[in-house]
Specification:
By secondary structure, the chain is mainly alpha-helical. Helices cover 59% and strands 3% of the residues. Helix 6 packs across helix 12, helix 9 packs parallel to helix 12 and helix 18 crosses helix 19. The two termini are 39 Å apart.
Length: 449
């Protein structure tokens, strides 16, 4: 069709002939009428597509059409090209993304997890450092720093956790909420954000680096005392993050951002005249880079990271019941009676059990995107939840009940368990369980589809 339409714009006498040929092509393609109302394919000249006709061809065409009721000229005048609907294109509504952009996002993981958390960590650290750099000489600077941190935590907490601080990321890693891989790239994003923000402040402020604060122990304060203060307030910050934003007993709440910002505000006022109150290796790195010095840089990395490390380790001691929940030894968290507020109640937490995993594996994008290593790790965790006596074996009856809860039929369950339990000892070992889970996942996904 495209070749023929291009012929419509050819030279002079070729136009009528090309449009006549188009009628024949469309009629043949759509199974149109035969006889006087269509140009038979046998009469179509070889030069009718994409070439200019010769005089002999035109004369022959006229001779062939003498007996037709419809002349090529009349057919050309009556011809209306049909509308061709776009193929495999989603409908576009007002406000939709451009098709090319939507297609690109579907092909990448940017729309899901991907690089989103790292971009958020970079952004939050950039604005935090920018406020620190541009308000350093102001007596009310701690208020500005505390409030920008509150805003940034609420902005990105649901995406990356809203750390904006390598010490916090280390504490959250030890808490078990992020992987080592994530922690490492959080460090990178945070430091880059701090460096960029300090440079922006330097070129934006009239006096440049002269008004940007330089983290350093204040006069008459020893390095050891400054180290102690940085460690203590970094620990306070990290333990606040862990106990307000990552515990089951506190649950989902809207106050964690205020608590985190309040610690930084208080720490800046209390420690500012002693250690400089950086409390953040990424911020300190950016400020020192602008001043072209690395004096005491180790202090502002080691002390906060040690505070984060201590907070992460002590969290597991203070919140032992969270460990029971995490490792499958309990289904509820119950705080002692001397706890205050909501802590006096038992809190349920949905454990990602075998049943939940199978249900997600049936259609969840999370399960579909899992790597082999992640699936293996999840299988281990679900096995430990069912192996309540730590014998390394699961009774067949317990296994059958779990698969039934996942929505599999009795026939499917019997077939899978019999195939997995090759030694016929009525218990499922881990190797047998792993094989069984792959079968169950495939069956659950097939049922979902």
């Amino acid at each position: 069709r495209r070749h023929t339409e291009r012929g419509l714009h050819g030279a002079g006498g070729g136009r009528v002939l090309q449009r006549s040929s188009l009628v024949a092509i469309m009629s043949a393609a759509e199974g149109g009428e035969t006889g006087a109302d269509a140009v038979p394919p046998s009469r179509m000249p070889a030069a009718s597509v994409g070439t200019e006709p010769t005089d002999e061809t035109a004369i022959q065409m006229d001779a062939d059409n003498k007996g037709d009721a419809t002349t090529p000229q009349e057919a050309a005048e009556d011809f209306e090209p049909p509308e061709i609907a776009p193929i495999n294109e989603p409908p576009i509504h007002p406000g939709d993304l451009p098709v090319w952009l939507a297609a690109h996002l579907r092909r990448t993981k940017m729309a899901r997890a991907g690089s989103g958390p790292f971009i958020v960590e970079f952004t939050g650290t950039l604005f935090l450092t920018l406020v620190v750099a541009m308000t350093g000489g102001d007596a009310t600077a701690p208020i500005s720093v505390g409030f920008i941190l509150v805003a940034m935590v609420y902005m990105g907490g649901h995406i990356s956790g809203g750390h904006y601080n390598p010490a916090v990321s280390l504490a959250v890693y030890l808490r078990g909420k992020i992987s080592f891989f994530q922690m490492f790239f959080y460090f990178v994003a945070q430091v880059v954000g701090g460096l960029c923000a300090a440079r922006i402040a330097e070129i934006s402020l009239p006096l440049g680096q002269d008004v940007i604060p330089l983290p350093a122990p204040r006069d008459a304060v020893s390095t050891g005392n400054a180290f102690l203060i940085e460690f203590l307030f970094s620990y306070a910050l990290c333990v606040t993050v862990l106990n307000t934003a990552t515990t089951v007993s506190v649950g989902e709440n809207s106050f964690y951002g205020l608590a985190i910002g309040a610690v930084v505000l208080a720490g800046n006022y209390a420690a500012g005249n002693i250690s400089g109150a950086a409390l953040n290796p990424a911020v300190a790195s950016g400020l020192m880079a602008v001043h072209g010095t690395n004096a005491n840089l180790w202090l502002y990395w080691v002390a906060p990271l040690l505070g984060g490390f201590s907070a992460g380790i002590l969290f597991h001691i203070i919140n032992a019941e969270e460990n029971d929940l995490r490792f499958g030894d309990a289904e509820t968290v119950e705080r002692p009676r001397f706890g205050v507020g909501g802590h006096t109640t038992a809190y349920k937490k949905e454990v990602r059990s075998t049943m939940v995993w199978l249900q997600q594996a049936a259609g969840s994008t999370d399960a579909a995107d899992m790597t082999h290593k992640e699936k293996k790790e999840l299988i281990k965790k679900s096995f430990s939840q069912l192996d309540k006596n730590n014998t390394g074996q699961i009774p067949k009856s317990e296994m059958a009940k779990t698969l039934a809860d996942a929505g599999l039929s009795k026939e499917e369950i019997t077939t899978m368990i019999d195939a997995a339990d090759k030694d016929g000892d009525d218990v499922i070992t881990f190797d047998e369980y792993e094989s069984l889970m792959h079968q169950a996942m495939a069956a659950a996904r097939k049922k979902h589809e």
